[in-house]
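Researcher: I'm comparing several assemblies side by side, and this is the next one on my list. It has 712 residues spread over two chains. Same procedure as the others: predict the full complex and return the structure.
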Amino acid sequence: MSRIGEAIGAPFAPVRTFFRRHRSLGIFVGVLLISIALPLITRVPPFDGIQSTNAWVNAFTTAAIYAMLAMGLNVVIGFAGLLDLGYAAFFALGGYTYAFVASPFTGVHLPFWPMLLAGGVVGAIFGVLLGAPTLRLRGDYLAIVTLGFGEIVPITLMNADKFTDGVNGIGGIDKPNIPGILQFTLTNPWPMYGLVIMLFALIMIMIYRLEDSRLGRTWDAIREDELAAESSGVNTVIAKLQAFAVGASIAGIVGVVNAAKITIVTPDQFRFAVSISALAAVVLGGMGNTIGVATGAFIIYLFQSILLKQLNTLVENFNIPVLNQIDFLEFQYVLYGIVLVLMMLKRPQGIFPAHRRMREFGPLKSAKRGSK
Amino acid sequence: MSAAKGKPMLKARGVTRKFGGLVAVSNVDFEIPRGSISAIIGPNGAGKTTFFNVIAGIYAPTSGTIELDGKPLISPPTGAGREPILLLVPTIPFIGLAIYFLIAIGGDTGLVEGVASVSVALLGFVCALLLNIVRPAWYNRVIKRIGVTRPARPNDMVEAGLARTFQNIRLYKSLTTLENILIGMHVHMRSTFLGALFKSRQVREEEAAAEQRARELLAFVDLSGMENELAKNLPYGKQRLLEIARALASRPKLLLLDEPAAGMNPKETEEMTALIRRIRDELGITILLIEHDMRVVMGISDHITVLDHGEKIAEGLPKAIRTNPKVIEAYLGRGAAAGH
């Protein structure tokens, strides 16, 4: 099997070596090609029968937003080995930051583009705030504290109704625009799609660069053996805070984009389920592998939002007794559970294991069979 | 011979470390002459590894001070009760700014003003928190004036020129040998967060140079050709060598080796002894080792210190230690010493 793969790949060898040397360019071109291919595929049956191309593009945009979240979480969990179950909190803080400065609720209307950066800064600040008291914690204990933080933030946002309008959330958030050239609207998903794809490529390039840098190596060291890392001269305190800050700032930026896309933020959008879906994507894709994690998030999102919806209409159309009483969309959390359990049992390294993790868990079964 | 040259590399004065009621190290005075190979020996549970860990900054001493290369680095922490002030004081200007801001707009706290002033105060708190965690050198100097001192952390000791290996090898097991060494070089690399993001020329050059030096270090401990091997897949003896290479990567002045020859066969032990000598002679690094294998200790040490029950019972040249009745008693018991 691998031989066939090699035969197919042979003509592309020079291309591959070129992109290995210029990885950032490779990521950019790859993301661009996929982002062009995806809408084209939806024009082909059976996909065109499911929903309109615009609805598909909208779904891809949301999927890419989730993929960015998962990539950010992967920095904390996959690189530095810090189990963070409250990741949605930073997503919420980014979203509310933008909602405060660009909605009729406060009457302030700042432009979107600088707020992207501001969302990142707010995320990083809260990342440090969460990271600082939890520096000594490891494993389960850290997971519990972060879980608590993830609950505190939406609950605070819900109860501080003077500032956040409580459960109603803040609506009518400004859409981004490029003055004189392009105005983003709710009906046209394409500009937002383009924006999210660009951001996706940018974040992926940045994460890959960090992973290969001196900082990325300190994260590796901490994940492997913290005491040894300290004795190698790594300031573990700072390195952990940096991991928290980088992960949280990505969530903050994505939160701003998400708020601008759906034009409303409510505390309910940021409950535990968001953290868990990001975690499921990280585990499904393969901890520590940025591209794998992004793909995992894409798969999970499309599965829950397209396939489960399709299952509903299918069952309704055929009018199957009992089954047509069930709303399959409500089963998405069951889906996360099943994904997490199955992955842990059958393939703990994820669908696309990180380079290192693959060696750690030994060669894949299919690869073994292929070589015999 | 080498002891005469200049100040000692490491000077410990009155070092005591207690764990609850147990005194693991008790009032030990200790000096390592520059350029020497020194050894600490003693029966099991004598406090050798605890003493090691105090020197390396892993445990803060209960009392006593340690100087490395003339710099006082480790002393017991003081003024812990005053630490909350450290968080509060730098925040006050920010809170003041927030209040001034609220007064300036006429005391009419609307929604935006409220959120803005709270975030200014929060920003101040985060700055104070970060200062307290990151602890730049000037900050340490300032807090020393109000009586708050903290012992150096292990990474500070590495920066000051100390490197160590562990009794039970602690490599980064699922990283390659090359990556293990690159992490060891961490303290001497200057690339910053932004530099890594934009992959500046300086960062690229530094990475290339680091990789080059890592390969040289692997060659020094005779591990060439194993650059891409995972650390955990190396045989035991080679793992020890890799750990030493990783310690050397931080360009130490003083290298601490915790039982470097433990679990090795006679041939490997001989090679290890030769390597330790080469580290001192070719790289000019002062070495302190803990070792149970007396052939190794007696063969290479210029200077031996004996610990028993946390106390220093003897020190001197190998020949003198071998015949010291106190040492024999510690190892073999009173009867054996008397019969000798």
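Model: For your comparison table: Confidence is low (pLDDT under 50) at residues 362-372 of chain A.
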